[in-house]
Amino acid sequence: MRSASRLFFILSFLMLLASTAFAQVPLPPSKGSSQSQKAQSQRQVDEQLARSFYNNKEYQKAADLYFQLYNNYNNYHYFSQYIECLLFLENYDDAEKTLKSFIKKDNTTNKWKSQISLAFIYIKNNETEKADKYLKKLISELPEDKNVFIQVANTLRMRDLDEYAIILYDRGSGISSMNYKFYMEKAIAYNSMMNFEKSIENYLLQLEVDSDDYEVIKSRFSFMMRYDIDGSVVDMMRMVFLRKTQDNPENVMFAELLVWFSLQMKDYEIALNQEIALDRRFDDREFDIIYLAKISRDNEQYDIAIKAYEYLVKKSNEGAYYSDAVVGLTEVQYVKSLNEMRDIEFYSAFEKRIESECNELAISDRTIPIIIIRSEILTFKLDEADRAVDLLSAVLEYNLSRYNKAKVKMTLADVYLYKGEMWEATLLYSQVDKSMKEEPIGHEARFKNAQLRYYMGEFDWSLAVLKILKSATSKLIANDAMSLSLLITDNLEFDTIALQRLAKADYYIYQKRYELANQMLDSVNVYNPNEVSMPYLLSRKAYIAMENKDYELADSLYKRVYQGYADSYIADKALLEDAILLERYLNKKEEAMDCYAKLIDEYTASVYVAQARNAYRRIRNEE
Fold first, then answer.
1. How far, in Å, CA of 116 to CA of 70, rounded?
2. Each residue of 398-427: pLDDT tens digit?
3. Domain that holds residue 351
């Protein structure tokens, strides 16, 4: 019994091995299957060859192959490519006959595509009236189906027949059962036709229908602005946006779009007016108004920035941005006053106002900017440096951020330097340099320390620091370091005594002791006149003339620098300073533009080129 069981097991195992082996042997393909694969393979080869001929512009060879493929497989793509080849070959007769034959027997959506191709051939044959009637008849007979309208319109647009796509969209927008206005499609088609006014209007109509398209439409407008060569599209946008906003005061999207557009165009006043109008309606635009104020200030649009801050200050002293607005307003008014050369009475009242603001808002990181302004006014405008020292020393006792503590120390060092207490100043500059070593304020402290050593006549010490600073992250610090380094190096090689007198004059200028500074500069002119020191000497005398409000003298001195010493390292700065003087104080805007243009054209590597270009554009736009 046991042997019979064993025999059964062995036989079963052998049968399992046999069945597994049989399963692993592939069956030979049937004759029909082989022919099908061969045909499919041949079709792929022919299709690739036809495409290759077409891409290589061998249109006759491509046409023959596509025609053969269409006859074999009845695929519309092959037929369409065959027609395209005939068009490239300008074989319009064969193309027309083939299309007409196809149109008669086809009732799919391919019929409409072929009808449009036929109309396109009529146009190519200069049969425009025939094409016009044919296309209008096609459009009028289309079934009232949105998908059909979109498909046919896309085919029309592929043939650059945008005007007929517009006719189709207009018909569709009037069909109530579709409930679709085709505004977005019309906007795109009008844009292709370079009818920008209609395009803009349709984008705005779409925005009325669906506010969710706001970002998409905004990006389309950005694209249109980017490729606006002569400014005509931008002018059109401005006109349409303003009109839409005025006609639809309840539509927030239009107001926001106008704000966005105005910011792109740097029309900050229009943007601010819209933001204020929105804030009065919704009471939620304070952050945007603060943002606008900062942008306006950065672009020297001080009056607009002041208007923005004043709106928030007057609105409520309990608002979330009230203290930011108070600080921002004071900062902008101070910067503006420096450009306007205000008198001592103005700064005396201004200092008292800041004291009141600090009492209201308390001393904190937020109010440090206006505390620094107050100390600068006390020192450099009112000659009350001791009060500034007391103020800043007291502020350092407060719990401030590391950055703001450094800012206060820097300002205190500036005040000590003004007072003539050199070692106190250099100690504070060094502390800031050490604590903020890799940050811009640290670089600034290091530069001021090098400048202080220059004032003291320690030129080698100053040069060692300036050499490192020439690669500073801040472009302006690096440029200032380069300029001072060149002044010291050039004069050290040529005339050390002249350099010592220039350094003494610079320190007198820093202390606002202009009479002594002029005497020191005159001594260089009398005893040490040379090609190296003269351009710098003239630029410093021009600065003193500006401070004394003798603008005609300053203008003549700046001109002597960039006209007589055009290769000097300070010629570009003299050009910029003279341009600003001509624009702001002598109201000679044409001459100012000439100076800006000269700086842009002749001093392409100058750090002041961007500033000059912006100023040039601003004056040109104002005119």
1. 20
2. 999 999 999 999 999 999 999 999 999 999
3. 341-436
State the Cα–Cα distance between residues 477 and 469, nearest whole angstrom: 7
Residues 394 and 513 in one domain: no
Q: Check whether residue 502 and residue 571 sit in a common domain.
A: yes
Q: For residues 416 and 561, what is the distance between their CA atoms, to the nearest angstrom?
A: 32
Alpha carbon of residue 598 to chain centroid: 25
Confidence check: pLDDT of 396 > 80: yes
Q: What's the sign of the alpha-carbon dihedral 557, 560, 563, 566?
A: negative
495: left (phi over 0), alpha (psi -120 to 50) or beta: beta
Residue 44 CA from chain centroid, whole number: 49
d(CA 575, CA 91) in angstroms, rounded, equals 66
520: buried, middle or exposed (CB in 10 Å: 19+, 13-18, 0-12)?
buried
Is residue 33 very low, low, confident or very high in pLDDT (cuts 50, 70, 90)? low
Q: Are residues 423 and 508 in the same domain?
A: no
Q: Which residues contact residue 298 at a Cβ distance below 8 angstroms, ignoring those fewer than 6 apart? A: none
Total number of domains constituting the chain: 2
pLDDT in tens, 139-176: 999 999 999 999 999 999 999 999 999 999 999 999 99
Type of residue found at 500: Q
Give the span between the Cα atoms of 122 and 128, in whole angstroms: 6
Backbone torsions φ then ψ of 622, nearest 5 degrees: -65, -35
416 lies in the same domain as 534: no
Dist. CA 239–CA 27, nearest whole Å: 77
Report the C-alpha gap between 461 and 442 in whole angstroms.
18
In a domain, 152, yes or no: no
From 436, 455, 481, the end of a domain falls on 436
Residues 619 and 357: their CA atoms lie apart, in Å, by: 36
| Alpha-carbon distance values, 338 to 322, 343, 380, 547, 584 (Å) | 25, 10, 11, 10, 12
- The rounded distance, in Å, linking the Cα atoms of 561 and 563 is 6
CATH of the domain at 422: 1.25.40
In a domain, 184, yes or no: no
Query: Residue 459 is encoded by which pair of tokens?
Result: 């030129």
User: In this structure, what token pair is assigned to residue 113?
Assistant: 């595509």
The pair of three-digit structure tokens given for residue 69, joined into one six-digit string: 């493929």
Place of tokens 């401005």: 238
Q: What type of residue is 527?
A: Y
pTM: 0.80
Give the angle subtended at the CA of 126 by the CAs of 125 and 132, to the nearest 5°.
105
Q: Is 506 exposed, middle or buried (0-12, 13-18, 19+ CB in 10 A)?
A: buried
Dihedral, 425, 429, 434, 437 alpha carbons, nearest 10: 180
* Residue 418 domain flag: yes
